[in-house]
Design goal:
Largest sheet of chain A: 4 strands, mixed
CATH architecture of chain A: Alpha-Beta Complex
Radius of gyration of chain B: 38 Å
Order of helices and strands of chain A: HEHEHEE
CATH superfamily of chain A: RPB5-like RNA polymerase subunit
Number of helices of chain B: 25
Number of strands of chain A: 4
Number of strands of chain B: 27
Distance between the termini of chain A: 25 Å
Radius of gyration of chain A: 13 Å
Low-confidence stretches of chain B: 832-836
Helix content of chain B: 25-40%
CATH class of the largest domain in chain B: Mainly Beta
Oligomer: heterodimer
Strand content of chain B: 5-15%
């Protein structure tokens, strides 16, 4: 399995790196500081592939059996 | 007030022990001939006071004022502290015994790499001394190159180690030599109080016993050292001292036999006081005891409401509710006080505004009545309608603790409505339950709003009703609502008045469906298949000939019979719909009313099961026999094919496995065919089949076991192969593959099973018992771990799910923001739900 393949796997949700502006907007919308967000390691396979840097906020769109699609935000932290 | 910033745990040093200690404990004698504690003994009054009336000789405090003082024992020879064994081993291996220098790569340790991962140098880099190999000989002797090390040697070695080296190895908060004890801190008497038995004898605490042992051996060791006894005697005593000190710290070390009491019970020493379920943490700190609670056996009462709990008068007189006297309720409360503490709606205590609390007794109730005024607080007995919290252990889900209205009743058991058995998982074979009486208005309001039984009908586990009718209520409802049940006007009136339904009866006769409809609220419209549905190929719906298609229009049961799918827990559509559309209290009322209607009709009609229900006619019997014989022949042929080697083997299986698979399939067909034959031929009015089809109790499978055949007994999903080599029992030939020799039971329970079949049946039964006992244990521990992991996660006001540190776990609870306990099976697509 090549590295790119894991993104197309059905169990891997859609990951998107937020821009500075989008991050600010989301943080103010949620009224939280970045250190209160759920974390993800910079060694996470998906993070490595999409090229997110430490401090970036990654938006994950997940499938949910009851809610259709849900948004989840994780901040990248160093290993 | 100053704030605690941090707590640091350190090793205790000999200097601190000396500072803490108020006296050396020197004698192993405890009490003198006058039964007074001996000076210098472990119960010396300088160490604290446990007898009332005495004063502490150190601080002069009385019992309760003086928390006790530490003493100390000076060892004749040092011993190892068993709890630090791993650390001692680490230092011995990683430092030079000549100069105390580090024997590992310093830079790597500075990087934070654990010393265990590093290589040990064989010669000291500082002094060049050769290093021996350190081995631990259980329980507590270290050996360097076959030469056993005494604690004295180890201590001398440790004294040479610099603070910096110790720190690098990971020894923080003290000197390494403190791991070897030269002094022992003796805890105050208050930490190990002795108990005076009824006979007047004193029984000492386990710790005291242990301390006496230590002092006695220490004394002997000291004496022998003084007279210059031979080495082997000294060594033996030293080892014995080490044993006593070790068991004083922890009496459950695997390589050491536990120190025992005279009775053979092992002693509860320091580690045992703290550890596990009965230790200080889980028993005393995490678990607390409460007041205002009661516990007794539960028994059923079909006449009380789902929201009620029957409380024995005896309990009601003991449990009280504090009520503040106002000018509005003063007369009411005066009546309570007039009754005194022994007559039921009485009162036990009155607290005046100045804080003086008086017990109400028959002698002083007149004087209390005179001074009673608004502002006083009366602790009156529990009365009908008081809100209480009821619980049955194990409390596995939130419906294990619910609020009930008290209903005072005679006799000595708690009474509960039968529909509420399911969430509590209660039955009446001796189950006991707990009752708590709430003491503040806030608690009462909260309990009533959140915990009341009717508000918990819908389970948060699956979003459906968890309460509902069971067993006889189901078969009763079927008997009531099936076609052909009619009652006269008088009978109908009796049934309805029992259920507190007031109706204008205009007709002369009423059908069961009409009577049932009285309980369904107006405005309920439903259409669904009943449990009795035969699953015909094309559903005729309204024209169903089995009356298994339920139609309810505006609260009228038009068609269909009522069974599990209508009123039972989990499946009950009617309960579900009423709870959603008409609210919790209507759902509760519905359950209260139908259960009463059903009990009343069952009293008139009756419903029972007998051996006759299991009889099968001759043709059915021969049909079953034929089916069995046919399948057995098939299997016989398969076995023959296997022996000839002509069997089809699927990839990855051995021929043996393939044969087993095929035999299992054929055997399974026998059970299936028997079930079908019985299902088809049994009389509609057969009680057993009614129970099975309505879902009240039992299944067609159970019926087939009783009147058809028991079939193949399996262990771990396979035929039975246990027993002797090559055969299950000595009655069979080795290598016999026939169904009979591997647990096939041809007989039915009604006919009776032969000894060999019985043996196989019992093997299967044992498996079942092992499974269930194992499952409860495993799932109980699983539950505990989950609870510990999730207990402080909560949904905040901003709807974010956070843990105790404030880190977000979920942005939207459950990703959909739906409270499953207020949902329709997990979904919210019904408009109706938003109304409530």
């Amino acid at each position: 399995m090549s590295e790119k393949d894991i993104l197309s796997h059905e169990l891997v949700s859609e990951h998107k790196i937020l821009t500075k502006n989008e991050s600010q907007k989301i943080l103010s919308q949620l009224n939280v500081k970045p250190d209160r967000l759920p974390k993800m390691r910079d060694t996470d396979p998906v993070v490595e592939i999409i090229g997110a840097k430490v401090g970036d906020i990654v938006e994950i769109t997940r499938d949910s059996p009851t809610a259709g699609k849900t948004k989840y935000y994780r901040v990248v932290i160093p290993e | 007030m100053s704030k605690i910033k941090e707590i640091r745990f350190k090793m205790i040093s000999p200097e601190i022990i000396r500072k803490l200690s108020v006296m050396p404990v020197v004698t192993s004698e405890v009490y003198g001939p006058d039964a007074y504690p001996i000076d210098g003994g472990v119960m010396d009054p300088k160490l604290g006071i446990i007898d009332p009336g005495m004063r502490c000789q150190t601080c002069g405090g009385r019992i309760g004022e003086c928390t006790g003082h530490f003493g100390h024992i000076e060892f004749a020879r040092p011993v190892l502290n068993i709890l630090y064994l791993p650390q001692i081993r680490l230092i011995l291996t990683y430092t030079c015994h000549k100069c105390g220098a580090l024997l590992a790569d310093k830079t790597k340790l500075e990087q934070g790499i654990a010393p265990k991962k590093l290589k040990v140098m064989t010669t000291c880099p500082d002094c060049g001394a050769k290093q021996g190999k350190i081995k631990l000989e259980k329980p507590s002797t270290f050996v360097r190159d076959k030469h056993p090390l005494t604690p004295v040697e180890i201590r001398e070695h440790f004294e040479k180690i610099s603070d910096e080296t110790a720190n690098l190895i990971g020894i923080k908060g003290g000197r390494p030599e403190w791991f070897i004890l030269t002094l022992l801190l003796v805890p105050p008497v208050t930490a190990r109080p002795s108990i005076t038995l009824e006979s007047g004898d004193r029984s000492e605490d386990d710790l005291t016993h242990k301390l006496v042992d230590i002092i006695r051996i220490n004394h002997r060791l000291a004496d022998n050292l003084e007279i210059g006894a031979p080495d082997f005697i000294i060594e033996d005593l030293w080892e014995l001292l080490q044993y006593h000190v070790t068991t004083y710290f922890n009496n459950e070390i695997s390589s050491i036999p536990p120190a025992r009491h005279r009775s053979g019970r092992s002693l509860k020493t320091l580690a045992q006081r703290l550890k596990s379920k009965d230790g200080r943490f889980r028993h005393n700190l995490t678990g607390k005891r409460v007041n205002y609670c009661a516990r007794t056996v539960v028994s059923p009462d079909p006449n009380i409401s789902l929201n009620d709990v029957g409380v024995p008068e005896l309990v009601a007189k003991e449990l009280t509710v504090p009520i503040k006297v106002t000018k509005n309720n003063i007369n009411e409360l005066k009546a309570h006080i007039k009754n005194g503490p022994d007559t039921h709606p009485g009162a036990n205590y009155v607290t005046r505004p100045d804080g003086i609390r008086k017990k109400v007794i028959n002698e002083n109730k007149e004087s209390i009545l005179e001074e009673l005024a608004p502002g006083h607080i009366v602790e009156r007995h529990l009365i009908d309608g008081d809100i209480t919290i009821f619980n049955r252990q194990p409390s596995l889900h939130r419906m294990s603790v619910m609020a009930h209205y008290a209903k005072i009743m005679p006799h000595k058991t708690f009474r509960l409505n039968l529909c509420v058995c399911k969430p509590y998982n209660a039955d009446f074979d001796g189950d006991e339950m707990n009752l708590h009486v709430l003491q503040t208005a806030e608690a009462r309001a909260e309990a009533e709003q959140l915990m009341l039984v009717e508000k918990n009908i819908r389970s948060p586990r699956f979003g459906g009703p968890i309460m509902g009718c069971d067993q006889d209520y189901i078969s009763g409802a079927y008997q009531l609502t099936k076609i052909g049940t009619t009652f006269t006007k008088q009978q109908t009136a009796q049934i309805l008045i029992n259920a507190d339904i007031i109706a204008d009866l205009k007709k002369d006769t009423y059908t069961g469906k009409e009577i049932f409809s009285f309980a369904i609220p107006k405005g309920i419209n439903l259409e669904y298949k009943a449990n009795t549905c035969r699953k015909c190929e094309t559903c005729k719906k309204k024209e169903c000939e089995h009356d298994a298609y339920v139609i309810i229009e505006d609260g009228e049961l038009k068609k269909g019979v009522i069974d599990t799918n209508s009123i039972a827990a989990f499946k009950g559509r009617i309960i579900d719909t009423i709870d959603m559309e008409k609210g919790h209290s209507q759902a509760r009322l519905f359950l209260d009313q139908i259960t009463k209607i059903i009990t009343r009709t069952m009293m008139k009609q009756g419903f029972s099961i007998s051996l006759d229900n299991l009889d099968t006619d001759k043709t059915t019997r021969t049909n079953i026999e034929k089916a069995i014989d046919k399948q057995l022949e098939v299997i016989e042929k398969q076995i023959e094919d296997y022996k000839k080697g002509k069997i089809d083997v699927s990839p990855g299986r051995t021929p043996e496995e393939a044969l087993e698979d095929m035999i299992m399939i054929e055997l399974w067909k026998i059970t299936n065919m028997t079930q079908q034959i019985i299902d088809k031929t049994v009389d509609e009015t057969n009680s057993a089949i009614i129970m099975a089809r309505t879902g009240a109790r039992g299944s067609i499978q159970n019926l087939a076991y009783m009147s058809g055949l028991v079939g193949q007994e399996t262990i771990r999903g396979r035929r039975i192969f246990r027993g002797y080599t090559g055969r299950t029992l000595s009655h069979f030939k080795k290598g016999d593959l026939s169904p009979t020799s591997h647990g096939f039971v041809r007989s039915s329970f009604q006919k009776g099973i032969d000894p060999i079949e019985f043996f196989f049946e019992v093997m299967k039964g044992r498996e079942g018992i092992m499974d269930s006992s194992l499952k409860t244990r495993v799932s109980g521990y699983m539950q505990r771990r989950l609870v510990s992991a999730l207990q402080d996660i909560k949904v905040g006001e901003d709807y974010h799910v956070r843990d105790s540190s404030g880190t977000i776990i979920q942005f939207v609870p459950g990703e959909d923001c739906v409270d499953p306990a207020k949902s329709d099976r997990g979904y919210l697509d019904k408009q109706i739900m938003t109304k409530h």
